[in-house]
Specification:
This protein is of the alpha+beta class. Helix content is 51%, strand content 7%. The chain has 11 helices and 4 strands, in the order ααβαβαββααααααα. It has a 4-stranded mixed β-sheet with strand order 2-1-3-4, covered by helices on one side. Helix 3 (28-44) runs parallel beside helix 5 (91-102), helix 6 (113-143) runs antiparallel to helix 7 (149-171) and helix 6 packs parallel to helix 8 (192-201). The chain binds glutathione. Glutathione is lined by residues 27-29, 55, 60, 72-74, 90-91, 127. It comes from Cladosporium halotolerans.
Length: 245
Amino acid sequence: MADQLYTSETPSEVKNAKGLHLITMNTPNGQAVQILLEELKDAYGTEWTTTLIDIMTNEQKKEWFLRLDPNGRIPVLVDNTQNPPFPVMETSAEMLYLLKTADKNDTFGFKDELERNQCLQWTFFWHGSGAPYQGQVNHFSRAAPEKIPYAINRFRNETLRVYGVLEIQLSGKYTGAPREYLAGNGKGKYSIADMKTWPWVKGWERSGFTEEDMKPFPHVKQWIERVGKRGAVQRGIGDAYVQNK
Ligand SMILES: N[C@@H](CCC(=O)N[C@@H](CS)C(=O)NCC(=O)O)C(=O)O
């Protein structure tokens, strides 16, 4: 089975990795899993190795990569403690896998079933709504060869709308009590829901939004700052994940 997982093109650092191995690039999706691994390191001493690839060269579309993730997108997590090694695609599935296997005390998840479900709701919300919308803003306003105002406006407006959803949750608009984090009782608890969402939302300026656009979201802006102060978050988006450093 491991024979089918790897080809002669698979980088040796991927093929010979022991334990957890992350194939990533320092983009918002990559950063979500990078941050969780850095948090797990602080909480439990979790160890892993990393292969950085450059998606601009389409390395992620090569067969060696597709064997690990048929979707051809970073990040991919491979658990080499399983026999055969177990590849996990999709950021949120990777984060849930890490919670199950490496977060024994539910430090970044929840023991209570309802709080755990709340964490899934906000993780899935960003996975299914925020990330694809903001990704399309970046694509249509920066990468697309042709500037299509309808597409740019459509995805800008949808992204601002989902920022508004985060604002409702964090401001406590309908509960009367502001929260510090997206999921959990009371003020909430820092969890994978925040880690999944934050790398995208913190990049609002890079996505072309202005201070004026962000004015309706003061609680979101405070949350961006709050999460960004964590050492593991800073390491998870930092130089260790920049290729050719
Ligand atoms: N739904 C996927 C999205 C992953 C994704 O879009 N990754 C981007 C980088 S942020 C990528 O690999 N793009 C390269 C490509 O589309 O070929 C996830 O959450 O893991």
